Structures are given as C-alpha cells and as structure tokens.
Amino acid sequence: MKKLVLLLVLCAGILPVVAQDSIADRDYWISRYLSVSFPLKKMKISSTYGYRKDPFTKKSARHNGLDLQANYENVYSMLDGVVERVGSDKRSGNYIIVRTGSYTLSYCHLSKKYINEGDTVNAGDPIAVSGNTGRSTGPHLHLTFKKDGTAVDPHTLLLYVKKVRSECLAALGGGKAQVYEPVSCADFISQYAAMAMSHQQRYGIPASVTLAQMALESKWGMSDLALNGNNYFGIKATRKWLADGKPYSCHDDELKNEKFCNYASVEESMEHHSRLLTSNHYKKYCSHSQTDYHRWLVGLIKGGYASGKGYVASCEKIIMKYKLYLYDKVAAENSKL
C-alpha cells in the first residue's frame, strides 16, 4: 500500500518521474526509500545521548537514549521489524520495543499503543502516540537504540534515515546524491571542522562560531531546511537572492512561510554564511580576534543575525561541550605558518 501511495505521488509530479525504461531502478529506489522512516512528522531534539544533568536529581547522569519533542502525536516505526515487547514501567512509562535483526529500538513515554507483541511492522507504520508516562518532565518521545544489547546513539539511526532518503530522492529525481557521513553529534562536528578552520583562515570567523551555529541552526543536520535545502545556518532569502532567481523554500520562523535560501551543498551554505558575516553590515559588529568566540557571537546578535534571547548561550554551550575553541587555536596557529 505504501509503495502504491508513493508511486501515485511520483506520477502526480511531486517528485520527478524517471524514464519508462528505468522502471526496475525506480522500483528499487522506491523500496529503499520506504525501508526507513523518521519516528515523527517533525523532529526537534530536546536531549542528546550521553552524559547530562538529570532533570530530577540535577546531578550528572548518563542518558542512554535520545529525546525528541512530541506533543501527543503519532509515532512511526523507523525500520521494518517484529514487535518484541509491549509494556509499561515506572521509568519508561508505556513502551514498545521493535527488533530488526541484531538491533532493537525502544519507543518510550507513550500515551497510546497501536500494536501488540509479535506483530510485524513496516517502516513508516504508525505504532503509537507519544505522551508523558513514566519518569518524564513533559510530553516527548524517548528513543533507545541497541545493537546486540549494547546502547548506541540513536542519532546514528536518524542520520542513516536521512542519508538513505536523500540518496533515494536524488536517484528518483536524476540528481546527484548528497551523502551524509556523520553518525553522532561529535562526528557531525568532525566532518565540518576542517572546512570551518579553513573559513577561519580565509575570513577570520572563529571555527567554533561556524560549527556551533550550524549545529544549532540545523538541529545537527536534521531540520527540514537542512535536509531539503542544505541551509545549515537559517539564512533567509534577500530580495536580490529572489530577483536573481536563486532557489528557496518557505518555512515558518518569526512569521509564517518565510523564504529561506536553498543550496546545492553544505559547502555552498558555509561559503554564503562566511561571506555574510564578513559583509559591510557585520564588519562593525564582528571585527574581533579569531579566538574570541564570545565577542563574535555577541556581535552577531547586535548585527541582527538572530533574535532569540538565549542564542549566545546556546552556541556557547555547544562550544564548551565539544571544546570547539580548540579548533580556533589550531586554525590561528596554522595561519601564522
């Protein structure tokens, strides 16, 4: 049924239809696209995998899963599999565990469950409704991902889904596939660190600022704008951008249906970001040392880059957690050689 729906979507022109002599290839990419799914229609990570301050004890504790904002909405199976367990306990609340080979994926704090133990599910099938059951401070979806019983960062799976679907859409549209390599927040940073340091040497913008902004603005590469438009910095389309006929997409931000720039690649997004921050408008606010990330971030706020009250603090939290200031020092030292 899902395959039929997607075929109808293709024929309707929402996605480009491949040539008739490529029906076998088209069917392959459609099947591959349907083999994975995001767990929610819209996603925003509220708590990452790893050590964090426990919301109940206020002490540092390991968080063996990933929390996504979800306000009593449908939860979808991320992979094909068999329902291994449906239950409830004081910590996870109502939960469902789905097994796919050597992997298990747990969906927790649910308010309603649609499936039973032993059921077979396909990726994209609605399996539950998110909720606030168990040890929870508010409605959300908690994911726990394990391989052979050992916890793995669920962000790995989210990025895998992103990669597969991006490749499939590119193949169905005849374009070049955008391949995503990172498997965690740390790997996300590692993937773009060298480019950020190169931009620091060329433009003088601290690499830590570039990396923190792209992580925050793109929700670690998982925002709709990043997934579909390669815009990792939330840069809005100017009148000139639109007049030049450059690509854009509409998203709700401060206003509904605001126009945001779209790029052919993440690299193009970073290049536009660096040129924007060194434009005449920002020079009077951001002419600081390459290693003074704090003053750069404050300058960006003064220049009107972001309106959120906690923007500087949010960026600095990422910088400190992943020690991004070390990239600033390396880039600055290498620029002297």
What does this structure look like?
- With 337 residues, this protein is α+β, with helices and mostly antiparallel strands.
- It folds into two domains: 179 residues, Glucose Permease (Domain IIA); 152 residues, Lysozyme (Orthogonal Bundle), CATH 1.10.530.10.
- Helix content is 39%, strand content 21%.
- It contains twelve helices and 14 strands.
- The strands form three sheets. Strands 1, 4, 5, 6, 7, 8, 9, 10, 11 and 12 form a ten-stranded antiparallel beta sheet that branches. A two-stranded antiparallel ribbon has the order 2-3. It has a two-stranded antiparallel sheet with strand order 13-14.
- A hairpin with a 2-residue loop joins strand 11 and strand 12.
- Helix 2 packs antiparallel against helix 3, helix 9 packs across helix 10 and helix 10 packs antiparallel against helix 11.
- The N and C termini lie far apart (61 Å).
The gist of it:
The chain has 337 residues and is α+β, with helices and mostly antiparallel strands. It is built from twelve helices and 14 strands.
The rough form would be described as: globular
The average pLDDT is 86
Percent range of helical residues: 25-40%
What is the name of the CATH topology of the largest domain? Answer: Glucose Permease (Domain IIA)
- DSSP strand tally: 14
CATH architecture label of the largest domain: Distorted Sandwich
Unreliable spans:
3-21, 175-183
Instruction: Spell out the CATH superfamily of the largest domain.
Output: Glucose Permease (Domain IIA)
* Total tally of structural domains: 2
How many separate helices? 12
Largest sheet: 10 strands, antiparallel
Based on helices, strands and strand pairing, what is the structural class?
alpha+beta
Give the termini distance in whole angstroms: 61 Å
- For the record, what CATH class of the largest domain applies? Mainly Beta
Query: What order do the SSEs take from the amino end to the carboxyl end, as H and E?
Result: HHEEEEEEEEEEEEHHHHHEEHHHHH
* C-alpha Rg (nearest Å): 22 Å
* Percent range for β-strand residues: 15-25%
